[in-house]
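Both lines are given unchanged directly below:

***
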Amino acid sequence: MHHTLERIQVDATPAVTGPLRVYFVGLALVLTATTARLGVFAVATAAFGGLTFHAAGRAYFGVLRYPLAFLVPSVALVAVITPGTPVAAVWRVSVTAQGLETAATVGLRAVASLTVLSFLVLTTTIPQLVAALDDLRLPDPVTELLLLVYRGIQVLLAESTRLHTAARLRGGFRSRRRLFRTTKLVSASLLVSALDRATAFGTAMESRNYAGRMPVTTSENGGHAVVAAVLVVLVTARWAV
């Protein structure tokens, strides 16, 4: 999933480019998540759903299905536990009018917010996100930590996959006894490898005269007209009488 998502991000062709994309999503998310107006939810879902599908294609639906799988039962629970006037009942479980109204608002807000965030997730890599935050004068230690954690996760995933594949091909998971023994050995090897890589990385940074600031990517902003149009419609839908 990690490599697939990264591949989608690299191949995406978003209509909004550069750090502007991050700021655009952040502002739209605030406008969407802090209101109860159905018009805002409809505009956010339609606009960002279209932008995301244009940029990433069918991958948009693949990303949404996981959070929606958790959202649907949560919304159903809200409809059941909210007190009020019952409109339907099955055995001892009843659904109230207030519960349905609250569940609808919560569900639509969540879907709209997920749609907005999906545009960022499917089109923006971690280095691009950090570069946008760096333009906002993010402290250097925070930038360094974000980039190192991101790179560290990549390395650990690749190494754990390699060790797991090697152990599986050697029959290390054929029985419960072998499973525990192999898991212990793989974990120990992964820890040693991580420590060795961290030491080598630190040495490499020192040899290159690292001064405490990580280099970040730079890119030109684009899609100002799209940003302006979507934000104007969102603001209008939010404050229209």
